[in-house]
Structure prediction request, 251 residues.
Amino acid sequence: MKFLDCTVLAYEGPILRAYLSVINTLGYKVKRIIQLYNGNCKLRWLPKKLREPLLFSREALRNNYWPLKFMHDKEYTSLIDCVMDAYKLGRHFFSSFQKTYVDYSRIAEEICYFDWQDKGWEHEQLFELLKSFGKQTYLFTGGGLVPRCILELPDTEFVHVHPGFLPHTRGADGILWSVLTRDKPGSACFCMVPKLNEGNVILTEEYAPLSFKSEIATNDLKTRYRLVFSFYDPAVRALCLKHVLEKFGTF
Prediction:
């Protein structure tokens, strides 16, 4: 496998699984995956080697609830296939979305866990951990706003894929605003920095809009929203990441 000198900040959810699916398909192995989870001081009596993967799996099950539910319902098969086929992501792109547990060790030289409890990115020990790694490129996969102190770590880059065509589509729910204001989805891969909108843009692009023939959930806006952010949004982000790696071979 090819080596990708990058540490993945793994916040479990469909975005993480989409990124790692692309990385795996392209034949890369990353330097490190830090599996982030909120253990909330639970199961302290268990040995660390059992406690950490168990609590991370518990978080994975919770954060992937809707993708798991949709993947096991034949009613949504045509929609999922439409996304894969339109963007040529491969027939197995969403395969990890139907699993309650995914072993990421096959695509990383090192796996470590970090229990950020209820503090998330603000956890002081997380800052110290990232600082201890020194010069590093990180792939951000979600979990909230990264504090300034982490983004200011020397000799580090934090790569993020935004689901909107920069600089025209910014903010939350980028894929929805892209379709509403530009009639097509877009994405942008860039490096996060403390000052908003000043990070280096690696690649920004737009894609052909999709037309879903299925009439599922025609009157259920919540289901539509969950479907978009379970499959469409992660796929658009992963497509941009795929093109970055194909074009540059790195971040």
Q: What stands out?
A: Residues 43 and 54 are 9 Å apart (CA to CA).
